[in-house]
Amino acid sequence: MKRYLVIADDITGSNDTGVQLTRRGIDTIVTVNPHGIRNDANSYVLDCESRSLSGSDAYSVVKNCLAHINLADFDCVIKKVDSTIRGNVAEETMAVDEAIGAELVLFAPALPNLHRTTKNAIHMLNGVPVSQTEIANDPKTPVKNDNLIGVLSAVYDEPIGHISLSDIRNRQICFDSHRVYAADSVTNADMETLVREAMKTGKKGAVGWFLRHCRQSVGGRAPNAPCAGSGCQCQRSDPCPDKVCRGERRTDCNCTRL
After folding, report:
1. Of 78, 95, 83, which is closest to residue 146 (Cα–Cα)?
2. Is 202 a residue whose pLDDT tops 90?
3. Which pLDDT belongs to residue 188?
4. pTM confidence score
């Protein structure tokens, strides 16, 4: 069984991710303690509780958490971000990127099933740029910039590439001009194409965590980490699987093992 390490920034997203992995038959533990992550048969979701921190503090927290983990123990290391890009998505992506020495970073936070999409590098909620929605007024983590290239450029000291919908749908995706890419996606099929083409490169970092799919990396056991959105299709009202908390609703679940 392939082992996954998912780095998240809050407990809700961490639990959602753990449920999705478990539903696919992957034994998963959700934890806030990086010291508890072991080289065993389990996959792990690490909640860094960093979403409401400053950008520099979030970077430091994620970097310090990863310093206590042997990333080579995992087949895939994945940075999960909020699908409305709340929080310190670029800073935390960079922290994971640096920890693994990624050759390719694919930043694709869309979640089409919940109407979170990206077009022309603008991230949208229900077809409206997120900076023009209620997300811009979030009391803790307001989103003021919905241009993914701009979000990444504010942190990365290197050019950011862009994979457009036209590139995806005309099968003209090229990962040769840049190392870090922001990617459009409006449908699940768009995201699946991104994953497939990224995996073909064989570059460290070319893995996928997109919607219904948990795809393994290419190139052996080298740890890999793009930033790929929430990856969860669940509604908050979905019940937990029986093995998690005996049918209770996940929002009321205090379990840490999923």
Report:
1. 83
2. no
3. 94
4. 0.82
Distance between CA 185 and CA 166 in Å, rounded? 10
Residue type, 213: H
Burial of 252 (0-12, 13-18, 19+ CB in 10 A): exposed
Extents of the domains making up the chain: 4-252
Q: Domain 4-252, what fold?
A: Rossmann fold (3.40.50)
Phi, psi at 55, each rounded to 5° = -60, -45
SS3 242: helix
Closest among 169, 130, 173 to 151, alpha carbons compared = 130
Two tokens at 88? 């310190």
Q: What is the DSSP letter of 257?
A: B
Q: What is the pLDDT of residues 5-63, one digit of tens each?
A: 999 999 999 999 999 999 999 999 999 999 999 999 999 999 999 999 999 999 999 99
Tokens of 118: 């990206």
Is 52 in contact with 87 (CB distance < 8 Å)? yes
**How many CA atoms within 13 Å lie on the side-chain side of 230?**
26
Q: Mean per-residue pLDDT for 237-245?
A: 37
Nearest to 161 by CA among 181, 191, 188, 144: 181
Chain segment 165-186, per-residue pLDDT in tens: 999 999 999 999 999 999 999 9
The neighbour count for residue 173, using CB atoms within 10 Å, is 19
Residue 215 in tokens: 């795809």
pLDDT at 206 over 50: no
What is the CB-side half-sphere exposure of residue 245 using CA atoms within 13 A?
A: 17
